[in-house]
Amino acid sequence: MNRVSKLSTALAGVATLLCVANLSAQAAGPQAPAAAAAAPAAVKPQAIPAKIALIAFEQAVFATNEGQTAVQTVQKKYDPTKAKIQQQETEVESLQKQLQSATTISDDERQNRVRSIDAKQKALQRDGEDASAAYQNDLQEAYGRVAQKVNVVFQKYLTDNGYTLGLDVSNQQNSNVLFAAPQTDVTRAVIDAYNASSGVAAPPVTGPAPTTPVRPTTTAPRTTTPRPPAR
Predict the structure, then answer these.
(1) Do 14 and 217 touch, CB atoms closer than 8 A?
(2) Contact yes or no for 4/89 (Cβ under 8 A)
(3) Distance CA 41, CA 26 (A)
């Protein structure tokens, strides 16, 4: 039988595109009185040297101390549900084996057992789907809370270091980036910058290293002009 005890499903990919442009236009209006100050001239577009940064944004969010803590909190919340579903699955598998090895039971008894196993399988399927949907929703919310703050740090990092373009390469399958020099990857730098600014300590390791959570459908906020936080 297909296992349904997993509490997470593949989710949609995370994508952030931060494009720095300095374009503003002053719309023409009614003629101002002579005493009024002249409107500023529109800024003309001009070519500027490009400095591009790449970031695996989703991985960066989950790799921060706060992101790791958030994921562990969600996983801990669903540990009892996971254990319950695993117990149900074990029970169904045991009943199936018993039925397969029962060679002396009547046809009526066999049909009764088949119906009982089928009912338990359907209940197991429903419980697994409900648990997966609830887990996914909580993971999305946890990701979204941290992603908003990581995005602010990412924008500030780009501005402070003179980058003109930031690209998210979290999803390699959908990325149009075919080659990039290693020094253009700022993922680790942004993680370190966020950890330093958040003040959140690294979570304790209490067991095997957790696997990277599946990609939530919540995406990081998109902005066109990265700006440092207001002072």
Answers:
(1) no
(2) yes
(3) 7
The pLDDT value recorded for residue 46 is: 77
For residue 182, what is the DSSP state?
A: G
Write down the mean pLDDT value for the chain: 79
| Integer Cα distance of 86 and 82 in angstroms | 6
For residue 188, give both structure tokens. 């680790």
Locus of tokens 């906020």: 221
Give me the helix-helix angle, 107-160 and 79-101, nearest 10°.
Answer: 150
Eight-class DSSP state of 185: B
Q: Which residues pair with 166 in a beta bridge?
A: 18, 53
Q: What is the C-alpha to C-alpha distance for residues 174 and 165, in angstroms, rounded to an integer?
A: 18
pLDDT score recorded for residue 92: 96
Nearest to 213 by CA among 5, 4, 14, 18: 14
47 vs 45: CA distance, rounded Å: 7
106-121 pLDDT, tens digit per residue, is: 999 999 999 999 999 9
Give residue 176's pLDDT.
Answer: 83
Tell me phi and psi for residue 166, to 5 degrees: -125, 130
Q: Please choose, from the candidates 27, 57, 29, the residue with its C-alpha nearest in 3D space to the C-alpha of residue 185.
A: 57
pLDDT above 90 coverage of the chain, percent: 61
